[in-house]
Structures are given as C-alpha cells and as structure tokens.
Design brief:
single chain, alpha/beta, 5-stranded parallel β-sheet, globular
Length: about 400
C-alpha cells in the first residue's frame, strides 16, 4: 500500500495513477471534501504579518480548486538539468487535461481590449492555454472561486477517479508526523492514530511539507520560499465587464515577469479609499506576476508561519511590469487618473523541499520509502502557473512507484 499526504495536483495524481494499477492507496487530506463552487470558502493564509500575503486553499483538491485553469509548461530546462526529463509526462498531462486555448467566443471585451492595446504598443500577448472544457464553460469570472459548471479541471477529478479504483480517501485529518524507524518509513501519525505503511508520498504543499521533513531532522530549503509575487494594476472603463470574463485568458511573457488580464475586487476597494465609486463591471486590470527571488521563509518552528517580503530586484520587476501594464491600460482607454493597485500577494508557494536538497532526481528523501511531489520540490521560481508541471512530476514519480 502507499500513503499519500495531500490531495492537490501532486497527491491526487499519484493516488489516481497508482490506484489505476491496482496498488492500494490511502490518501489523507487535512481539509474537508467540498463542492467545487464553494472552493473560495477554503482560502487560507499563514502569514498575517508577512509583506506578501501567500494564498492557498485547504480542502480536497487543494489549490487547484481555486486556480484560473492555466495550463502552461514551466521549469522544463531547470528540471532537465536536475536529471528529470518530463517530455512524455507533459504530453500525457496535456492530453488528459485537454489543454488548449479557448475559442474566440469565450474571450470577453475586456480581454480583447487589453490584447489589442498591447499589440498596438508592440507587445504580442498570447492566448493562455487552459484546462477548461469550452463546451461547459459559462464565463462568470469565478474560476478562482470555484467553477460552478465543473468546466475547469481540478485535482478533485483525479481524487474521484482514484476512489472509483479503490483508493481510500480520508478528509479532515491533518498528518502530524511521518513515522520512521531505522531509516525506513513506517507510516504517518494523525493525532493519536497511526496509519502504517512502508511507502509514503508527501504532497502537503510547500508550507506543510517542510514542516514534516524537518521534524525528521531532514534537510529542507524552507528558507528559500518563492511565491510568484503578484499585483494587479487597474482602473475604470465603464461597463467593460472584465469581472465576468474567464480570468487570465491571455498572457504576455517578458524577462522575469508576465502580464495577464485580471479583475480583482481589491481594485474597487482601492478606488473607494480614494473616494472614487465604481462597480465591479467598470474595472479593467492587468496582473503583474514576477519570478520572485527565493528569499521567503517557512518558519517551521512556529507552526509553518510564512515570512515573505519584496527584495530590491523584486520591486524593480514589479515596477517595470506595472509601468508596461499601465501603458497598455491607457492605450485600451482607461483614464490613468483612476489607476490603482492591489496589495502584494503570492499564490504559487514552492521551493521549500527542492530537488537536490530535500529529494534526489527520483523525488526520494534520505528516508527509505519516503518521497515528495508538490511545489516544494521545484528547483526555481517559475514565474508562471505551475500546476501542469506538478502533475507531470507526479506522473513521473508514479511510474517509479508502480
């Protein structure tokens, strides 16, 4: 049997792949089972004192339930240099998740305005590959809150596939400790209960995975946290309706950062603080997401709290991105006097148990039978949505466990 800790992109994939090969699987998730449309209720942050607020969802399916459905490959070169070639896994994932750009009918006026304005300024904004079923998609701007139509792939689908193949799914059960004897894994402890097994896969995420590893005295990179820090710049364009569109349906990749059409309610709040009233339908914005420096900290001794700031280089990239975003928005018809920005946030925590430090090229730790596959193993900040890469890594590991 194999115990999988965590049900996000990594854990759900391992559970599904192994269960399909009739390997007994017990998947343990600290959060509850949910309906996809309610995923936004399970957002959490471990870092109220941190300069950059790090977002994630704690529930069955993890943060995939609140993703924008972006299906881009990232870190291929860095992983290859670490001895991991994911070419076949990426191809498999893209087929299985149905990754493709959405048809023009699912591009709203706000996204079109931004893409056309960018092109007039000499920037070619590409259509974002999505793991969204175009036939089921009814744009309402709620991808990152939980898709009410079930059009967006989430790890919940893999969890349910694993369950149909015989995997046992245990929710509302935090794993407190990995049990090890004589250098070999023997299971996990959840409160007063021990679940025995000689193979354990940690997929608890970049905040909780290093906590479990450091309890065993293993090396981690918990002081090298990255989060793909982002802000959204926006302003008023009456009746544009970007808030009802598929978010991040286009993207512009530049050196060290990316830009994408994005609505945020924080823009409305920022305008209100300046005494400017605007409805959600009047806001148009562009996300600036940077490949941040890996200088955040998971404070393992303090119960996995997070400290994440902005370095001088990060600030320069955010400023550069904001300047270009502002130029595009102005070209799209936004009055620059209405420009505001959101608080600093990060939605892709990773790098805290990275390949070459906490795990080897087979994603194995120093403890016999203990593996890790989630964003914590990523060797560098992607500066781009990492879900596709994590699923590919989980398929890579599954082949070695089956």
């Amino acid at each position: 049997m194999v115990i999988v800790v965590g049900s996000g992109a990594g854990g759900a994939t391992v559970a599904k792949e192994l269960a399909a090969k009739h390997i007994p699987v017990k998947l343990i998730e600290r959060g509850p089972e949910i309906e996809e449309k309610d995923a936004f209720r399970y957002y959490t942050a471990n870092n109220t004192e941190s300069e950059v607020k790090v977002l994630r969802a704690i529930c069955l399916g993890g943060s995939t339930t609140v993703s924008a459905g972006n299906g881009v490959r990232c870190l291929e070169t860095e992983l290859r240099e670490a001895g991991i070639d994911l070419k076949s896994e990426f191809e498999s994932v893209e087929r299985e998740l149905g990754v493709s750009v959405l048809p023009d009918a699912l591009f709203g006026e706000g996204t079109k305005r931004i893409m056309e304005a960018a092109e007039r300024l000499g920037f070619k904004m590409e259509k974002m590959p999505k793991f969204i079923d175009a036939d089921r998609c009814k744009p309402d701007g709620r991808c990152v809150f939980g898709c009410s139509e079930g059009a967006k792939w989430t790890a919940l689908r893999f969890v349910h596939e694993a369950q149909r193949e015989g995997a046992e799914i245990i929710t509302n059960t935090p794993v407190d400790e990995v049990v090890v004897k004589s250098g070999k894994v023997k299971g996990v402890r959840c409160g007063n209960r021990i679940f025995p097994d000689d193979t354990v896969v940690l997929s608890a995420g970049a905040i909780d995975t290093p906590l479990l590893l450091e309890k065993l005295g293993l090396n981690t990179s918990s002081r090298s946290l990255f989060v793909d820090t982002f802000i959204t710049i926006g302003g008023i364009l009456k009746g544009i309706g970007l808030n009802r569109e598929v978010p991040m349906n286009g993207y512009l990749k530049l050196e060290g950062f990316m830009l994408a059409p994005h609505f945020s309610k924080h823009l409305v709040e920022a305008l209100a603080m300046r005494g400017i009233k605007a409805s959600h339908a009047d806001i148009i914005g562009i996300m600036v997401k940077i490949k941040d420096e890996e200088k955040g900290v998971v404070n393992v001794c303090e119960g996995a709290g997070v400290s994440k700031g902005v370095t001088g280089r990060d600030a320069a990239k955010l400023s550069e991105g904001a300047s270009i975003a502002g130029s595009i928005l102005e070209a799209a018809g936004v009055d620059p006097r209405t420009f505001v920005a959101t608080p600093l946030r990060g939605a892709h925590p990773g790098g805290t148990a990275r390949i070459g430090i906490a795990v080897d090229g087979k994603l194995a730790t120093e403890v016999d039978g203990l593996y890790v596959v989630d964003a914590s193993v990523l060797p560098a900040s992607p500066g781009a949505p990492p879900i596709l890469t994590i699923v590919a890594l989980a398929k890579y590991l599954s082949k070695r466990l089956s």
